[in-house]
Write a structure and sequence with these properties.
This protein is of the alpha/beta class. The chain has one domain. The strands form 4 sheets. The chain has an 8-stranded mixed sheet. Strands 9-10-11 form a 3-stranded antiparallel sheet, covered by helices on one side. The structure holds flavin-adenine dinucleotide (FAD) and iron/sulfur cluster (SF4) (2 copies). The site of one iron/sulfur cluster has 13 residues, from helix 8.
Length: 452
């Protein structure tokens, strides 16, 4: 295998995740929004320095585990000290948050317990743009956004780390951390000590901005008039709220709205997500996601699932509980897998799909995590059919033919959508699993005493 000498394949394949490591390694590179892919990616090919740190080219998880934790991953799920369900004890903060409000509580803890001088988190800039900023006071925490599911430019992460010689914590999606640690380990290892804590998000996928342009089109609104979007908050799932100028808010049900189902289906994910094997964020001290377990479905406001990967992650959970910031219930990896699904934790789709892309001569990053070889084997014909369909839909997306995508989805997947809706109705509305006692992986009554 020849080593990549620049970013041309990453740009052509749309595999960039906008982490900005290449820009830090090679100042001639900057990110721009690609009209074709509707994601941020490098405006030029850069050189070997840029290619050498790019997580859309390769991530050596074994090496990065050593760099970050000074030890190897201990199981297919990576390094694990403990796994929890958790929820902010502040009802309002919990309600506004994407799941249990744990990330906001963790940031408040890191700042108020003087563990970090500042925390890098994304903040809203304008319209659909968010960017990493260093926040220094607990007062700023409740103004931070919830989960942002569309592609954003994360380039400022590394420049903030380089600029401030302080104790810095970072909130990051998995591939963002891959870029940061690829860069630090290869080019600036002396900066590792500045990064005193990382809060990682669990992440199954993000959407290219084609999703937002498509939904605006389906609502008969101008995609270029979209000035803001909120994906979550309000209840466990929350409505998608789209803001159009001037002061026109449209709310879309995320569960049962057909337009949402089309614009936010899998094919609209950014290309790198299809080959991502690190959904559970192997490199973060504390990983936070949503609990999707049957036993926690009673929650109206959301419960977080958290993995402490390092001692400092476990200490933070313990301290937040002692300070009364969060309610906590410890769980096992079996429940983590129940919540997130085997496909996600073992990269069940990503490994064989990467192999398929390679056989087609397509660029795909080299990613071998501790979970390699643990997933169930998927049928080759199913993968090949998905690849063909993805290629067709990407062509339609690049041409902005969103109505054609709507009808294509309906004609090809209408029956599957109806089945999914029926399952949701039976389980969530009729609560059949609850009534027949099939949802008791954990004692629901015990959880109800701890969480709202
Ligand atoms: C793209 C994406 C996909 C996800 N997929 C899953 C999943 O499949 N399964 C699962 O269990 N959980 C997933 N999550 C995590 C989940 O949505 C919640 O973010 C998580 O449970 C934390 O909830 P909270 O209530 O503690 O966070 P909140 O209090 O709502 O805080 C969220 C914080 O995370 C940071 N953040 C949000 N979006 C981004 C972003 N795009 N890039 C960098 N930082 C960001 C910001 O600091 C923000 O303030 C995903 C999150 C994202 C952003
Ligand atoms: S993935 Fe990161 S390093 Fe690679 S091209 Fe994109 S921004 Fe640059
Ligand atoms: S699924 Fe993987 S590649 Fe996609 S946004 Fe999440 S961490 Fe990045």
């Amino acid at each position: 295998m020849t080593e990549a000498t620049d970013l041309r394949d990453v740009r052509a394949s749309g595999m960039c995740i906008a982490c900005g490591a290449c820009c830090a390694a090679d100042p001639s590179v900057s990110l721009e929004l690609s009209p074709e892919w509707q994601i941020y990616q490098p405006a030029s090919n850069g050189g070997m320095q840029a290619a050498g740190v790019c997580p859309a080219i390769a991530v050596d998880y074994q090496r990065l585990h050593q760099f970050v934790f000074a030890t190897a991953p201990m199981s297919p799920l990576g390094l694990i000290k403990a796994i929890y369900l958790a929820q902010s004890t502040d009802a309002e903060r919990n309600k506004r948050a994407s799941s249990g409000g744990l990330i906001k509580e963790a940031i408040r803890y890191l700042l108020s317990a003087d563990i970090a001088d500042g925390v890098i988190s994304i903040v809203h800039i304008t319209g659909l743009e968010y960017e990493p900023r260093l926040i220094r006071s607990v007062e700023e925490v409740d103004r931070l956004p919830g989960s942002i599911y569309h592609n954003i430019n994360l380039q400022a992460t590394i420049s903030l780390l380089e600029r401030y010689d302080e104790r810095i914590a970072l909130v990051a999606i998995p591939c963002q951390l891959e870029g940061v640690y690829n860069y630090l380990s290869r080019l600036r290892p002396e900066l590792r000590k500045r990064l005193v804590f990382t809060i990682g998000l669990l992440c199954a996928w993000q959407y290219s901005r084609h999703s937002l342009r498509a939904i605006a089109t389906y609502l008969n609104l101008d995609p270029d008039g979209l000035t803001d979007v909120a994906f979550r908050g309000g209840d466990q799932i929350g409505k998608l709220r789209l803001q159009f100028a001037p002061n026109q808010e449209v709310q879309v049900d995320r569960r049962a709205n057909l337009k949402y189902q089309v614009a936010f289906d899998r094919y609209f994910n950014t290309p790198r997500c299809f080959v991502c094997i690190n959904h559970t964020n192997f490199l973060a001290d504390l990983v936070v996601g949503d609990s999707w377990m049957q036993s926690t479905r009673f929650t109206k406001t959301g419960i977080s699932i958290a993995i402490a990967r390092s001692d400092s992650g476990a200490r933070a959970m313990c301290a937040m509980q002692q300070r009364g910031q969060i309610a906590v219930h410890q769980i096992t990896d079996k429940e983590l897998i129940e919540s997130e699904g085997e496909a996600l934790v073992y990269g069940e789709f990503a490994y064989p799909f990467s192999d398929l892309l390679r056989t087609q001569g397509m660029h795909t990053p080299i990613l071998h995590g501790p979970n390699s070889g643990y997933g169930r084997i998927l049928r080759a014909e199913k993968l090949a059919a998905f690849y063909l369909e993805l290629s067709t839909r990407r062509t339609l997306m690049a041409q902005g033919r969103y109505p054609a995508l709507f009808w294509r989805k309906l004609l090809r997947e209408g029956h599957k959508m109806a089945q999914r809706y029926l399952r949701w109705f039976i389980n969530r509305v009729l609560r059949l699993k609850v009534l027949t006692g099939q949802d008791r992986s954990l004692c629901r009554d015990e959880l109800k005493t701890k969480f709202r």
